[in-house]
Design brief:
This protein has helices at 6-15, 47-58, 75-89, 99-112, 122-132, 137-150, 186-191, 195-209, 214-233, 237-241, 254-260, 266-273, 288-297, 303-317, 319-322, 340-351, 353-364, 367-389, 396-407, 432-449, 496-513, 535-555, 570-585, 590-603, 610-619, 625-633, 637-643; strands at residues 67-68, 159-163, 171-175, 180-181, 184-185, 250-253, 282-285, 410-412, 469-472, 477-480, 557-558, 562-563, 607-608. Strands 2-3-7-6 form a 4-stranded mixed sheet. A 3-stranded mixed sheet has the order 8-10-9, with helices on one face. It is an alpha+beta fold. The longest helix is centred in the middle third of the chain and has 23 residues, at 367-389. A hairpin with a 2-residue loop joins strand 4 and strand 5 (184-185).
Length: 663
């Protein structure tokens, strides 16, 4: 179901353009002529719709959107960030190199840059020419290393600095999984028989911009498409589909990597990029099979195709500077009808978000909010402490390990976002392209140099202006962004239990990931070590996992037809369940529980188009929102007590079929 045979894609290349055909979907007439007006939804029957029904019924999809009626409209965050940029752009006199100075400098330079008439920057022209003049893979990989170091590209090897999953506090060079070729994703290739044609077409267009005739360009396009199919066929798509790719990671020595990358001088490559050679004796690989095939592709016999692939990636990164000079590339740049000022704001918000982020925190986050948030996090930690301590099915050694892991969890909040070192950015100058290049080189140098520095557990991995919270098993940390501390998720002035049902349930979910079926294999220090759990407890966990899989697959459907994949969603379902068992354990009265339940359902409010839901069922590790709400509440005894749920009610599950994470 999840993989389309690659040879089908290859056949589509030879098929060329074929006449399209459509089939009408038959309309099945209703056999009944009478309709019954449904009464109001009861919490005992469908709690999700009991809370969200009116909002969902009144929601309308905007043109092009697949989501409506979100619990939180993140357009507010966008407007706040854009307001910050506009305010800074209208000011002056900022300290040289400060966040405000970088924003102001880049904003003014963007407005002054005439994208339609400025020639392609000389740096880009030279790089494109250098790529075209390559005759061997060795020559191309030297340029590829420069593109990674100076131009912000991922490079053909997708090599970057990462946490070392097997050594606490250390970093390692990671070969990430390749997920696309020529801007066509492997997910598209899995789902669309003609996706390889898009690879060929994109490659042909690139060739034609380099003054090759269409016939030879098309021929080269087919060759690149064939290479893409080879790489797709060697790709482990389960890694693409999972949020937890660490289970596929392998640590290889330099010699082992050299034995795989026989067509690449890796020592020269990492030296050109600028990585500290003393820290390049071990490497982490996510998809070893794909890396082996990539090495085969990186052959001199494929040099012409590889050059086009490299130029395509360079084009993609700098398309706005290149497209105005090639009619064939007009399709890749969308005309904007916004004012120049609005376009500049959009550019800064996306490209210089690390500069707006600390300003956003200072403007929209307070010590009072942070104190309330940390206090709630500590309450949630205490809830888990009790759950783990009283979990009778755990052996004492595993219980101690889980409690140690719990106590070692570190929170990362807006208060941890610090301003940058102004001296690094004080010399930004020139036109917009030059400023952009200077800025990218500074950020990339920091990333390259970080390989030789120990892990900082308070390092912020996501912008505080992003609406999110996440658990990182390699650092044993929970990041809670400033953006998510908005109602209905969190309001410092709101009732405590309302907040506990909102952001509290999200934090408890993230904390629950530390103990779910995926991340429990990391110890208290963030080291991937499945053997730290006793065999007896692992057997108990496996049995509980099986029951949880059955619970979700057998009791809940979407559209009355589609079942969730209990194995695929197990980790997220367990995090949801453990989180709700935790926050409900903090309630003192039924009224407290009602507030928790109500906001828990409210923050999962979301309406999606049917096709999106069906696609998510196939590949997403999260259950649909209605199941995340009803399936979790239907297995909590306290929910039955509060709403007097009885056999025959829609939310009723027989006691022997209910599940628990901790009880």
């Amino acid at each position: 179901m999840k993989r389309i045979i690659a040879t089908v894609l290859l056949c589509s290349l030879a098929a060329g353009l074929a006449a399209g055909c459509t089939e009408e979907i038959p309309v099945i007439p209703s056999e009944t002529s009478e309709t019954t007006t449904a009464g109001p939804v009861r919490p005992q029957d469908d709690y999700y719709r009991y809370i969200n029904g009116e909002k969902l019924a009144n929601a309308r999809f905007e043109y092009g959107d697949s989501i409506a009626a979100d619990a939180f409209n993140d357009k507010m965050i966008t407007e706040q960030v854009e307001g910050i940029i506009s305010d800074i752009a209208s000011g002056s006199g900022y300290s040289k190199g400060s966040e405000e100075d970088v924003i102001k400098t880049a904003y003014d330079a963007f407005l002054d840059y005439d994208f339609a008439n400025e020639p392609i920057p000389e740096d880009l022209v030279k790089m494109i020419n250098d790529i075209q003049n390559c005759n061997t893979v060795d020559e191309l990989m030297k340029i590829d290393a420069v593109l990674l170091r100076d131009y912000g590209l991922s490079g053909l090897l997708h090599l970057s600095v990462s946490y070392d999953f097997f050594n606490a506090g250390e970093k390692i060079l990671l070969f990430s999984q390749l997920t696309s070729v020529m801007d066509v994703s492997f997910e598209e290739m899995r789902e669309d028989n003609f996706a390889a044609d898009n690879v060929a077409e994109n490659a042909s267009i690139i060739m034609q911009t380099l003054d090759h005739d269409k016939d030879s360009s098309d021929e080269c396009g087919v060759k690149i498409a064939n290479l893409a199919i080879e790489l797709y066929g060697s790709t482990n798509m389960d890694i693409i589909d999972t949020d937890w790719d660490y289970i596929y990671m392998e640590i290889l020595s330099k010699d082992e990597i050299d034995n795989i990358l026989t067509n690449v001088d890796l020592s020269e490559y990492v030296k050109t990029v600028g990585f500290d050679g003393e820290h390049c004796d071990r490497f982490c690989v996510i998809d070893k099979g794909q890396l082996i095939r990539l090495n085969e592709v990186l052959s001199d016999k494929n040099i012409e195709a590889l050059k086009v692939w490299e130029i395509n990636d360079l084009y993609g990164r700098y398309m706005r500077f290149i497209a105005p000079h090639h009619k064939l590339l007009a399709y890749y740049v969308t005309d904007s009808y916004d004012t120049p000022e609005k376009q500049a704001v959009n550019e800064i918000s996306h490209t210089f978000y690390l500069e707006t982020d600390p300003v956003y925190v200072e403007r929209y986050y307070t010590k009072e909010t942070d104190d309330a948030l940390i206090s709630m996090c500590d309450d949630i930690r205490s809830g888990y402490r009790e759950l783990i301590a009283n979990a009778s099915w755990l052996t004492e050694n595993t219980r101690k390990g889980l409690l140690a892991k719990l106590e070692n969890i570190v929170y990362i909040t807006g208060m941890d976002r610090k301003r940058h070192d102004d001296t690094k950015f004080k010399d930004l100058s020139g036109n917009y392209f030059e400023i952009l290049m200077q800025y990218q080189k500074i950020l990339m140098k920091d990333s390259i140099d970080s390989l030789a520095t120990p892990v900082n557990r308070k390092e912020i991995a996501m912008p505080m202006q992003m609406f999110n919270a996440c658990y990182d098993p390699t650092a044993n940390t929970i990041t809670i962004t400033v953006a998510i501390t908005n109602a209905p998720f969190f309001d410092a002035d709101a009732d405590y239990y309302t907040n506990l049902g909102g952001l509290g349930s999200v934090i408890a979910h993230e904390m629950g990931h530390a103990f779910d079926s995926n991340c429990i294999v990391f110890n208290e220090n963030g080291v991937y070590d499945p053997d730290w759990i006793t065999p007896e407890d692992m057997e108990s966990l496996t049995e509980r996992n099986k029951k949880a899989v059955t619970y979700f697959e057998d009791n809940f459907t979407v559209f009355g037809v589609y079942h969730v994949d209990g194995e695929q969603t197990l980790g997220e379902n367990y995090a949801d369940l453990g989180g709700m068992e935790c926050v409900t354990s903090l309630a003192k009265t039924n009224e407290d529980l009602e507030k928790i339940f109500a906001n828990y359902a409210a923050v999962w409010c979301r309406k999606r188009v049917d096709s999106t839901i069906i696609n998510l069922l196939a590949y997403d590790e999260h259950s649909p929102e209605i199941i995340r709400t009803n399936a979790i509440l239907s297995t909590l005894d306290c929910f039955y007590d509060v709403y007097d749920v009885k056999e025959g009610d829609g939310m009723y599950i027989a006691p022997e079929n209910r599940i628990s994470r901790w009880y």
